What we know:
Blueprint: H1 5-8, E1 25-27, E2 34-38, H2 47-50, E3 56-60, H3 64-76, E4 83-88, H4 95-100, E5 110-112, H5 113-119, E6 122-125, H6 129-142, E7 148-151, H7 155-163, E8 173-178, H8 182-191, E9 202-208, H9 214-225, E10 229-232, H10 235-247, H11 252-267, H12 272-301, H13 305-334, H14 337-349, H15 366-371, H16 382-401, H17 406-428, H18 430-436, H19 439-460, H20 470-477, H21 481-489
Parallel strand pairs: 3-4, 3-6, 4-5, 6-7, 7-8, 9-10
Antiparallel strand pairs: 1-2, 2-10, 8-9
Cofactor: Mg(2+)
Binding site for Mg(2+) 2: 242
GO biological process, one term: isoleucine biosynthetic process
Amino acid sequence: MDPTASATARALADTTFTSDIFTPEPLAMPGGDETVLRGGRHLFPLLPRAFAGVRRIGVIGWGSQGRAQARNLRDSLAGSDIRVTVGLRPGSASAADARAHGFTEENGTLGTMREVVAASDLVLLLIADAALAEHHTEIFAALRPGAVIGLSHGFLLAHLAETGGTLPAGHPVIAVCPKGMGDSVRRLYEQGATTEGAGINSSFAVGADPDGRAVDLALGWSVALGSPYTFRTTLESEYLSDLVGERAILLGAVHGLVEAAWQHFRLAGDDAVTAYARSCEVVTGPLARAISRVGLDGVRDGLDPAGREEFDRAYTAAYRPARALVAEIYDEVAAGVEVRGVLLAERRLAEGGMSPVGDSPMWAAAPEAHARRASGETAIDPLTAGLFVATMVAQVDEFAERGHPWSEIVNESVIEAVDSLLPYMHARDVAFMVDNCSRTARLGTRRWGPRFLAGYQQTVLPAVSRPADAALLAAFEGNPVHPALRAAGRLRPTVDISVDAGVG
Length: 504
């Protein structure tokens, strides 16, 4: 990707849009009004109009997103004449699971990648990033004339920019990007059957629109996934914020932070389980829920005076080092370094996988810490909360400086974390998530998690005993993220997020 992308992000997205089918509404944000679409099952009868001209949707891949999106689309479009078909590579190990969920060769909803692409009017490319980089040429060659290309990640666009390739001319190109992992996309969709508004928010983008129907089609796709609200971005902006986020506050920084805090509490005299509770349990459980319900400033306001003082010292010690790391990640994503790293790693890892992080000493304390949940929730530790909130705000501020729209900022930096990823980590552990997420996210986390760990250990934690920086606290109190998050929060469900610890 062009290194200047990090500077030109200021003009990446026109956040307004209109629709001939749905009724978008304005959303007041710090940077000006954006346009959003509230979802809901009451909109499902409009889906055939949104998908006008589409009789077959081909979902290519059965990974986390493919598995969820194929089922959500099929369920939302039930009763229409639109068929959802899954396309897999020959011999795919995922075929048995797809069949178990009703996609079979016998009913015409399961086939090879090439035959499904060739028969589909809308082709959703949801295979792994490295596989898409490897197979996109043959996929493009198999597209029927005028077929719509659908993406849920901007990785392919970045890869094409790196290699000098282009998306095929004459095809509409749209993206709908759920702000959560595939398991959450499905679980919350199912929860939405009885709780109106439950779901995972999505961004959408239009890369090419030769026939003028791309916006309505993208909105229909998002509604069919069960998104409570949908906001507009661009493929470039989505790619930048997504890859940076998963290397920072969504996963990489979380892993580095909880390990650093655990070691800090151990050195201070805590036993392993208590240290685990004060670090990992706090971040994934009560702190995540508090941010979801009362916002970032509400977490600080809810502490007693002594706790607020400790939070302030931790926040101001962590903010600048975290911001520097987020900026470094952003520059490397924008310059294409992360894309090249993922593809190079795929070649190396073809001969063997990555060693798990879950074998490190910290995670041996997890079972006993989880068992203690029955006796009551762990209290929010002010030091851990200050470190985490500082890192989250550092990402927010970096995205804002780079020109991302505020709906994207709060979703990629806050809502996705507290309403999707952290609840899943609470059920399964941060280490489990690191060891089982997508290859792209895992590689990024394994690269940047240790950088955050070292930063917290070497720079941040030694400084937490110093007086809080009044200027940084004033900036936090007046940060535009607070009204932006409240505005976005009014469109989010006021329900406890469904988490099934048995979901893999």
